[in-house]
Specification:
alpha/beta; 6% strand; 67% helix; four-stranded mixed beta sheet; single chain; 372 residues
């Protein structure tokens, strides 16, 4: 144990921490950007669609078209209603993006509703904003279904039925309950890998790489000393999120810290191993930065944050299995929202441990071969 955690390892860890923290701008960049990203992503990276403008072409002017229009206008997600006077105006409003959706009522709409013949409501959505258009379409469907339900209450159908829908783990479908646990993964990933990817490249650029070649340090001591600081920084950022979250966003943390932190450490080790590979291969800090930037985008896209893993092609799903962020995102969402048990946390942590072992071993081999 003394051989593993002796004064030489402590010396190189302190040296790396000092290299990161001695610059005031570097200290600020490790604390301020994560806080800014938490606030910006927390509020801007929303899955909701609000303040939309909807066009209405009402050729009916009857009771039920008026009722639907009033309910649409009263929706908290609708900013305003634009009255249209012709089909050409409706098409122009969609083409020029004045509205994201337009509703069209035929002249006999209310009459068909009143006589029970079944009325048809026309709706046109801007397909250029496919995700937002689908969500707005859901809003309109619920409003129209509400009006239809009120009509059935006044005239009960012969065989009435009912359904009850319950959303587990996120009862109100609050997007923050998905976004904030995901940000713990993304920001910890960025802050830790940005530090470790510069470590060896910085030695090369400053000309101190040759000193490592003649130093008494073993390869594993050098790599361990360079990987401990980014792991500590990533843990500090994650802890900051856990402290700030209840006061700003109110997302519950239902799991156990005793299972969350070990999984966090394994995740940071896996990402640090990837960052160390980039740093060993790069000759300058600029190359290391560009290399990590090139890797961060696919890591982000294949994590399950931007889109569910099940929605991507099968061969990319296999690639995603080698992505530590994919596994840790499952852990964070589970620990935050449903109190994931230790067995399930371990089931999603051991793949990250395998990735950490492989990447650190590869970085050690490349580093040793360059020393030789």
């Amino acid at each position: 144990m003394t051989a593993l955690f002796g004064p030489r390892l402590a010396a190189i860890i302190i040296k790396e921490l000092w290299a990161v923290l001695r610059d005031p701008r570097s200290r600020i960049s490790l604390i301020l950007p994560p806080l800014i990203q938490l606030l910006v992503f927390g509020y801007a990276s929303t899955l909701e669609v609000k303040n939309v403008t909807i066009g209405v072409l009402d050729r009916d002017g009857g009771q039920w078209s008026h009722e639907i229009i009033q309910r649409v206008a009263g929706s908290p997600n609708v900013k305003r209603i634009v009255r249209l006077d012709s089909d050409a105006a409706l098409a122009n409003a969609i083409n020029t993006q004045q509205v994201i959706a337009a509703l069209r009522f035929d002249s006999h709409f209310s009459a068909d509703v009143s006589t029970g013949r079944g009325a048809v409501l026309g709706a046109v959505f801007d397909g250029r904003k496919s995700n937002a258009a689908q969500i707005v379409g859901g809003y309109v469907d619920r409003i129209v279904a509400g009006v239809a339900a009120d009509i059935h209450v006044a005239r009960p159908p012969p065989t009435p039925g009912s359904s009850s829908v319950t959303y587990w783990f996120n009862p109100n479908l609050d997007y923050l309950w998905f976004t904030i646990p995901s940000l713990v993964v993304i920001i910890s990933l960025v802050s830790s890998t940005s530090v470790v990817s510069q470590s060896v490249a910085r030695e090369k650029e400053l000309g101190t790489y040759d000193q490592l070649m003649v130093s008494p340090f073993r390869v594993w001591e050098i790599l361990a000393g360079k990987m401990v600081p980014p792991v500590l920084i990533g843990m500090a950022n994650a802890t900051l999120y856990l402290v700030v979250n209840p006061f700003i966003f109110g997302v519950p943390f239902r799991g156990s810290l005793l299972v969350f932190y070990p999984s966090l450490v394994v995740f940071l080790l896996a990402m640090s191993g990837i960052g160390m590979l980039v740093s060993v291969v790069a000759n300058t800090q600029q190359q290391a930065f560009l290399g990590m930037f090139a890797l961060t985008v696919p890591v982000f896209l294949l994590s399950g944050y931007a889109a569910p893993i099940d929605n991507i092609p099968p061969f990319l799903q296999l690639v995603a299995e080698a992505n530590p962020a994919k596994h840790f995102l499952i852990v964070t969402e589970g620990v935050f929202l449903k109190g994931m048990p230790a067995a399930d946390v371990f089931a999603n942590s051991w793949p990250m441990l395998v990735i950490a072992v492989v990447t650190i071993a590869a970085a050690s081999y490349l580093f040793r071969s360059r020393l030789e």
